[in-house]
Amino acid sequence: METIETTEQLTHFVRNQAQVRVRAGGTKPATSGNANVSLVNLSGVIEYESSEFTITVRAGTPLAEIENLLAEQRQYLPFDPPLARAGATIGGTVATGLSGSGRFRYGGVRDFLLGVRFVTGEGQLVQLGSKVVKNAAGFDFPKLMVGGLGRFGIMTELTLKVFPAPEATRTVVLENDNQSDALETMLQLAASQLDLTCLDLDDTNRIRARVAGSDSALLDRVARLQQFSNIANKVIEGEEELALWQAVGEFQWVPAGYRLVKVALAPEQIPPLISDLTPGALRICAGGHLGWIAWPQERPGEELDRVLAQHCCPGLAITGDWHSPLIGEHQGSAFARRLTLALDPESKFTNPQPVV
Amino acid sequence: MHEVSKTSIVSVCKLGSRTPRPSGLHTFEPPSHFWVDAVEIPAASASTPSDLSRLAPLVDQLRQRFPTDRLLTQPAQLAPYESDGLTAFRVHPGGVVLVQDASEVVTVVRLCHEHGVPFVARGSGTSLSGGSLPVAGGLVIALNRMNRVLDYQPRSQTIVVEPGVVNQQVSRHVAQDGLYYAPDPSSGPVCTIGGNVAFNSGGAHCLKYGMTANHVLGIKAVFPDGELVELGGRSHETAGADLAGMFVGSEGLFGIALEIVLRLLPLPERFHTVLAAYDSLEKAGDAVASVVASGLLPGAMEIMDKLAIEASEQAVHAGYPTGAAAALIVELEGPEEEVAAEIPRLDAIMQASGAYELRVAKSAADRMNIWKGRKGAFSAVGRLSPDYIVQDGVVPRSRLGEALAEVQRLSARYGLRVANVFHAGDGNLHPLILYDGRIEGQLHQAELLAGEILRMCIRLGGSITGEHGVGVEKLEFLPEMYGEAEMELMNRVRQTIDPQELANRGKLLLSASDVGKQSHAPHPLESAGVISRA
Fold first, then answer.
1. Are residues B137 and B226 in the same domain?
2. Domain finish residue from B352, B379, B406
3. Which of B230, B266, B461 is nearest residue A192 as measured by Cβ atoms?
4. Contact flag B334-A125 (C-beta cutoff 8 Å)
């Protein structure tokens, strides 16, 4: 694997290779297993304008570095990118399209990427989108880069929208007796006006609802959340709360010997999916729209692929060995194929894997 | 038949949108005086002569499938479709077909492709960038009748709509469940979701909630060659490339959206809307900077200048502070307790900001009234001037003051009044350039001024459009915002999807054959009398 240091080296590399597969932090090995170039040294913050709510960084910049810098100005990435502790980079986060539990309130990584600089399959460096928070000029290439797995271009720089960080947070853990009660409670909370930041449901029917905002309003809001659901609960705060969400974001719940897979869900798909997923485990985030599946190593990946396809769910393998990281049902191959023709006519980014 | 340029649309399209129709108009009915001065352009004037020879056999085919009341070919029937919100440009379409469902759209697109006839999809025609301007000799596919809600899942907070559904109808449809659809362009009572998707429309809440693209989860579309494609789905999350996101804002060049899945949000429990009056624009701008620096994240922050306030007040009587140099609207929203905690913080900022008058909306009706004043500002400016251009550009928020000073300087230099209405929270300017089209040369001056504002936006590191799109209006400026490589890439993407350039030709991108031939000469079709100005 070649580690490139500059954008020029990357364009040169792309022009001279038949296949280009990128990695950086290596925290999502199912998506970067066959990489031949590392962007880990293409790192650093280029521009941070806290008053603009924007930050421009090189693709290989670790999330942790960005989050620390933002925290100094009391700002944060609301889409809550996972695996920051493990060493994930912003480029890898965008390329895999990963958002964490915090995506519930303000949306996912797709909603916070404003601009990208990337290298096309012909080794051309282009800059699309913009560095301002609102822009409707030209095709929305930044969106295409989200979850694109480097199949449409290799990102070198990204501009993201950031938000002011809440003053304070609390988490209420709600214990439900059974799965259908838990789902019902979660959906009611999701549609409520409680303005939750995170809304997760684990495979033991436990809901974690996070409240964030002004310090002086927080206790009242927590009390209302407790009343709203009216079931056994526990309020978690301080270091314990931070540790809880950090563990969620690092997928510490995934047992040894299991592979991690992300799945995009509509809440009504959850009950039938859960019953077909055994012996895998499903954790639900974002009020029922984002699922994380732990799938046993010893079970064939094709089996999960088939289950997700049956339920019309698109999935993305994060860890472990897979034939392709994209499993389940993915729409839009006709569009993806045409875009590849324009962006990567020699299919350097998709060989040997098929597009979508 | 007019002499027609042999080349297709070339280079410079003129800037300038004149006098959008008043909002609240639910069908396109141009004012009666509108056509008086119009130069009648024969329907036979086409962007390419070959388009014309192709049209007749297409119309023959369509006649077999559509009743006469849904296939319009008579000049009088076509007149309402000659223009959109960018009324400075008008083109006679070859025909208009009023489709009723997705299968009809697919049929029409396939026939257009087969016959090589360009087509333009159209909703309510509110585009301020000429996004639905017809192609001469081409077909307009009118989507207003496709206005059904196909599926609504309140528990999943998603709704599936046809493209002709009106923006505000979505929020009305879901209000009973305490939900709403966030993107709120000023034309919301009229404009359609299909057009919002094509042009990635914005509104007053984009800093916090993003634009249309951020609320579109899935799209079923027909490509310009008739192939059907499904992008995204019903999940708020995506896995794999965000292809639905890539489709949004493609200005019709990727085909026509047939079904659109939208994300819905729970209605905020409480709003706190403040209207502040200032004796200078700078103070209002500084107030916005202070709010941002405080860590508050208001749902909206809007500024109007003196002229805009006066116009709006005359039209809407929302109780705006007439005589003020600037009015600032700041709106907090959220749970009761959270808003209650944020109010003193906002109050302190506003008190310190030098506002000489502060008004807090006392009721939902009062709040709606304040917003009515703001959203009606565009059309209200029509009272101040016979004509005006609505401009749409973005600058980094911290450079708003600089940008406004430059707009004022330009206004003085050109001797034209400019009213300013802007989404201060996201740096999105809407200078309204006032002129009188009856005065020789004034339209041209207004267009030059508008162009200078766009170049300023580029220079300050912003964008030539925050929410209206490039359309016909800003074709000339897109290559100034992006470099050659970026333009080439966009053209290549278009070529792989629509090599014949049938879908919404003349918008966003120049024809491939004309790339590199840009000049500042008048638009050749305009010279040839094919495109005309009202």
1. no
2. B379
3. B266
4. no
DSSP line for B10-58: -S-PPP----PPPTT--S----GGGGTTPPP--TT--SSHHHHHHHHHH
Enumerate residues 6+ apart whose C-beta is below 8 A from A266. Answer: A288, A289, B153, B156, B158, B233, B234, B235
* Residues 6 or more apart whose Cβ sits within 8 Å of residue B221: B228, B229, B230, B231, B247, B254, B255, B256, B257, B258
For residue B310, give how far its alpha carbon lies from the nearest alpha carbon of chain A (Å).
27
- Could you tell me if A84 and A251 are in contact, meaning their C-beta atoms sit under 8 angstroms apart? no
Token digits of residue B394: 């973005």
Q: What is the pLDDT of residues B54-88, one digit of tens each?
A: 999 999 999 999 999 999 999 999 999 999 998 88
In this structure, chain A runs to a length of 356
Neighbours of A228 (CB within 10 A): 17
Which residue among B232, B266, B482 places its CB closest to the CB of A331? B232
User: Containing domain of residue B375, as a range?
Assistant: 270-379
- Take residue A44 and report the two structure tokens written for it: 């650093």
- State the smallest CA–CA distance between residue A185 and chain B in angstroms: 11
pLDDT per position as a tens digit, B264-292: 999 999 999 999 999 999 899 999 999 99
| Four-way CATH pick for A2-164: 3.30.750.24, 2.60.40.1170, 3.30.465.10, 3.20.20.220 | 3.30.465.10
* CA A288, chain centre distance (Å): 15
Question: Do the interacting molecules here have an ipTM over 0.90?
Answer: yes
The identity of residue B65, as a single letter, is R
Q: What is the pLDDT of residue B515?
A: 61
The CATH code belonging to domain A168-249 is 3.30.70.2190
Q: Which amino acid is at B192?
A: T
Q: Helix A270-277 vs helix A301-310: angle between axes, to the nearest 10 degrees?
A: 160
Q: Are residues B129 and B173 in the same domain?
A: no
Rounded to the nearest 5 degrees, what angle is found at the Cα of B207, between the Cα atoms of B266 and B260? 55
Structure confidence by residue, pLDDT tens digits, B319-355: 999 999 999 999 999 999 999 999 999 999 999 999 9
Token output for B284: 């209002």
Residue B210 sits in a domain of what CATH number? 3.30.465.10
Determine the Cα–Cα distance for residues B86 and B534; give it in Å rounded to an integer.
Answer: 10
Reading across the β-sheet that carries B149-153, which strands appear in turn? B149-153, B158-161, B256-263, B216-222, B228-232
Residue A149's SS3 state is coil
Helix%, strand%, coil% for chain B, nearest 5: 35, 20, 45
CA-based nearest distance B266→chain A, Å? 6
The domain spanning residue B127 has which CATH number?
3.30.43.10
Tell me which residue of A282, A325, A315, A318 sits closest to A83, measured CA to CA.
A318
From its phi and psi, is residue B175 left (phi > 0), alpha (psi between -120 and 50) or beta? alpha
| Residues 6 or more apart in contact with residue A77 via CB below 8 angstroms | A63, A66, A67, A70, A112, A160, A162
Measuring CA to CA, which residue among B133, B146, B38 is closest to residue B85? Answer: B133
Contact call for residues A85 and A68 (beta carbons, < 8 A):
no
Question: Which helix (H) or strand (E) is B59 found in, with range?
Answer: helix B49-63
Structural domain contains residue B468: no
Residue B380's pLDDT is what? Answer: 87
Domain-located, residue B331: yes
- Taking an 8 Å cut-off on Cβ atoms, the answer to whether B206 and A133 are in contact is yes
Of A128, A221, A356, the CB nearest to B335: A221
A·B CB contacts under 8 A: 298
- The CATH number of the structural domain formed by A258-323 is 3.30.70.250
